[in-house]
Amino acid sequence: MTESARIASGVRDGTVKADLVVTGIGQLCTIHDPELDDQENAGPRRRSGMGELGILENATMAVGAGRVLACGPEHEVLSALYGGAEIPAGVEIVDAGGRAVIPGFVDPHTHTVFGRTRQDEYERRIRGETYLEIAAAGGGIHASVADLRERSEKELVELTTGRLREMLSWGTTTVEIKSGYGLSLDAEMKMLNVAATAAEAVGIRSVRTCLAAHEVPAEFRDRRQEYVRLVTEEILPRVAREGLAERCDVFCEPSVFGLEESLIILTRARDLGLSLTVHADELEPMGGAVLAARLGADSADHLIMIDGPGREALAGSSTVAVMLPGTVFTLGLDRYAPGRGMIDQGCALALASDFNPGSCPILSMPLIMAIACTQMRLTPAESLVGATLNAAWALGKAAEVGSLAPGKMADFIILDGPDYRLVPYRAGHNPVASVFLEGQEINPKPTSTISDDYSREVGK
Ligand code: NIG
Ligand code: FE
């Protein structure tokens, strides 16, 4: 559907001025629908709203002070900005040349801070071992914990910086970064500091989450209650006090943290003012989604094994269901989370990469969209809403990012083709021609890989 111009207040009377005008946009996917998004009780998109992209054809977008000022037909936007006059000298003009423009991707679930990659486990799984068997044999999260604890903050910043640059090159402009490979006060703080330093160095927008409850560390194996106490009495209070993270996550799984332990940790986090998210119903159904909805969590993530009550709880709450189909793909499982059915049932769905060294080394949101489309039967439009606006809701950041609505951050991508559907259609291809953060173009093609350190194996 083609709609007419949306213009921020202050444009017509000249109180806000543009410093960038993007012309010649063949297809501008604003992901902004005034009827759905500007209402007082607006929330994440559901049902048919998941397919509404707010497309403007042959459009122009004006940006001022890092925010979207106006989107619409060129003559309308320019006449709102300048009356009938020329675009003044000093205003940057970028010609999109008929290509499509979409919001920068929001990746609401990553474990980007880690040391070595775990391609050894990838091969073991292909040869027949399961994720849980490898974890029980000392691999999995424990292997990354031992490795991370040995590394300096400086070394981890370098590794993390390269990965964040690579994310930006694939169009991710907002990323959530979890701790969870430290599992001690010092190492968790180290991870969160690394996340903050690296994100700042790269210029990517980030949201940090404390996942001290990712696993019970080996030294607490026989006294797990003491670890829960360490998390609730020392780690979370310190993290909250020092502003190292704004959210708390728990790996709620029978073999990791049970429902009762998860409740204790999440309740404490909420009391400390942190927002909540849960690794829920990933490997076995246990009621993690119900718990997340009951506690008013921003999101419940994974949900491969979600059951009927879990689906109902999410459909009836504002908790966003975050799907991580790259993990299922990487683990080679034959069951994806029931994304299609959950949309039809009224759940608000978002997509994330789950980028981590074990179960998902994919950091490309375009590839995640492709997997979501073919394996979970999301339409290309639903996958785009899931990777932008609903992902922003999953992080509690929808007022700032996730769509190109007047007043929101001008974080956007000029694609290398004229149609957003090319993004999931060309699985494996990088569809990003340029990335803009707050209206500033940033180098879209860094050369880094996720690790420059394949040979080094610390603590093994
Ligand atoms: O989200 N599920 C738990 N955590 C990660 C895996 C972490 C790892 O294997 O290192 C996940 O898939
Ligand atoms: Fe995860």
Name the bound molecules. Answer: N-(iminomethyl)-L-glutamic acid, fe (iii) ion
How many H/I helices? 17
Helix content: 25-40%
Name of the CATH class of the largest domain: Alpha Beta
Provide the number of structural domains: 2
Say how many strands there are: 17
Which class do the helix and strand fractions yield?
alpha/beta
Average residue-wise pLDDT: 95
Uncertain stretches of 5 or more adjacent residues:
none
CATH domain fold name of the largest domain: TIM Barrel
Shape: globular
In whole angstroms, the N-to-C terminal distance is 57 Å
Percentage of residues in DSSP E strands = 15-25%
Task: Round the Cα radius of gyration to an integer and report it.
Answer: 22 Å
CATH architecture of the largest domain: Alpha-Beta Barrel
Biggest sheet record: 9 strands, mixed
**Which oligomeric form is depicted?**
single chain
Task: Look at the structure and name the CATH superfamily of the largest domain.
Answer: Metal-dependent hydrolases
Question: Notable features of this structure?
Answer:
35% helix; 460 residues; 17 helices; 2 domains; Urease, subunit C, domain 1; binds fe (iii) ion; binds N-(iminomethyl)-L-glutamic acid; TIM Barrel; nine-stranded mixed beta sheet; eight-stranded parallel beta sheet; alpha/beta; single chain
